[in-house]
Specification:
- By secondary structure, the protein is of the alpha/beta class.
- It has one domain: Aminopeptidase (3-Layer(aba) Sandwich), CATH 3.40.630.20.
- It is built from five helices and ten strands, in the order E-H-E-E-H-E-E-E-E-H-H-E-E-E-H.
- The strands form three sheets. A six-stranded mixed beta sheet has the order 2-3-1-4-8-5, with helices on both faces.
- A hairpin with a 2-residue loop joins strand 2 (about 30) and strand 3.
- The termini are far apart.
- The chain binds pyroglutamic acid.
- Pyroglutamic acid binds near residues 20, 70 and 141.
Length: about 210
């Protein structure tokens, strides 16, 4: 059976949980759209996360890869449009590193587009009444770093598509006034994204971006 890799991250920034970690754990082993999901956790560490991701890609040879991460402050499930070649950390990673204005890949291109059908994913989520929008920036912390590292690694894997989806905080993480979603909704959202990505080769052309 063909496989789909879903990665999540360990908690970071003093948190005890990370919704993306739970998503990868819970979807591991599920069969979606005829593909077996392999769920793995990446360290929230610059460099080490991409080394681990490349190792997992070699080990599992997936047909499709969706990396998932937490984006505190966002209210929607946000497939990311583009990964940029810069690390610029506002806080230290889990190994204490805080790179500033450093490239993810020295002499790599400025950016890589997601090869997921981001608009079709957003449309499907909204049809299921899950808040969703295309995001135009994955930030410059470890998530963008992994997204860029993933797309860079996929250059040499013909036909393998991939991208990144940010999710809001969990209900139990959010402080007063912060947007959040339940774990169950997030798991359903990423499972839907897998199904849509597997069956959609050409993305829809319609508005679906965040307004800011
Ligand atoms: N979110 C962070 C890194 C790990 C995670 O889950 C980010 O958005 O960069």
């Amino acid at each position: 059976m063909k496989t789909v890799l879903i990665t999540g991250f360990e908690p970071f920034g003093g948190e005890k949980i990370n919704p993306s970690q739970e998503i990868a754990r819970q979807l591991n082993g599920r069969v979606i759209a005829g593909r077996r999901v392999i769920g793995r956790i990446l360290p929230c560490v610059f460099g080490a996360a991409n080394a681990e991701l490349r190792r997992i890609l070699r080990e599992t040879s997936p047909e499709l890869v969706i990396a998932v991460g937490q984006a505190g402050g966002r209210a929607e499930i946000t497939p990311e449009r583009v990964a940029i070649n810069v690390d610029d950390a506002r806080i230290a990673d889990n190994a204490g590193a805080q790179p500033v204005d450093a490239p993810v890949v020295a002499r790599g291109p400025a950016a890589y587009w997601s090869t997921l059908p981001v608009k079709a994913i957003v449309a499907a989520l909204r049809a299921h009444e899950i808040p969703a929008a295309v995001s135009q920036t994955a930030g410059t912390f470890v998530c963008n770093h992994v997204f860029y590292g993933l797309m860079h690694a996929l250059r040499s894997r013909r036909g393998v598509r991939g991208g990144f989806i940010h999710v809001p905080l969990l209900l139990e993480q959010a402080k007063k006034g912060q947007p959040s979603l339940s774990q169950q909704v997030m798991i359903e959202a990423i499972a839907l994204a897998v199904a849509v990505a597997v069956r959609t080769r050409r993305d829809r052309r319609e508005p679906g971006g965040q307004t800011h």
